[in-house]
Amino acid sequence: MGISDEEWERLQKTLDWPGPDPEITQLNQSTSPVHSSFSIVGLKESYKVGEKISVTITARDHNKNLKQYGGDFFKAKLFNSELKASVYGEVVDHRNGTYSVDFLLPWEGQAQVFVRLEHSSEVVQILKKYRDSSFPCSHYHGHFEGSGPNKTRIREVVECNLKWGADGSWRKRNCCCEYKDIRTGMVWQCERPKTLSCDKLVHHSGGRLQNPLNRFEQQLFTK
């Protein structure tokens, strides 16, 4: 792949998001952007260009309790609005509710630290669950056209999608017309039309969007 073993290992660690130890059942147990905080370690009145600034982030839930596990998606940057300059730092997850970030000062002048909670660890797990699942969120329409009795023109519209899941199922087996991309091996499925045969597919168009989140998961996103 053109990268070293060390870089590959680092990428794997970066992609490894720790999840909550127990599954939470109350919204207030999720990470709160209001009660979470950050501080600059050993803050001084002045720094030199190229000097390191270390920041510690402390995650708390909506009851102000310290989180006992990691997995929150924080973004941290050093910026100067007048210079229109900024640099992001790599957030290190200590998996105990605390995170650390190091910045190197690249310019002369003022600098401010900005930290944002993009997603709580609970929301990250929801995103991961549906990313790894076979749940199709977007559905499409397949348009079939052909001749019927007395040479009448028949048009049928059915629901279509990619073939999902470890068992290759989106609908029940033998329910659908299947079209395989020779180059990628990916299979496209359309529900079988009532009248026309599978070879009468003309084109497809965008269909409905389906929200996979249950009510509690939706509340976590808004929380």
UniProtKB/TrEMBL annotation:
GO terms for biological process: nervous system development. It comes from the Eukaryota. Transmembrane segments: none annotated. InterPro entries: Ig-like_fold (IPR013783), Ig_E-set (IPR014756), NXPH/NXPE (IPR026845). SUPFAM superfamilies: E set domains. Pfam families: Neurexophilin. PANTHER family: NEUREXOPHILIN AND PC-ESTERASE DOMAIN FAMILY, MEMBER 5, NXPE FAMILY MEMBER. This is NXPE family member 3-like.
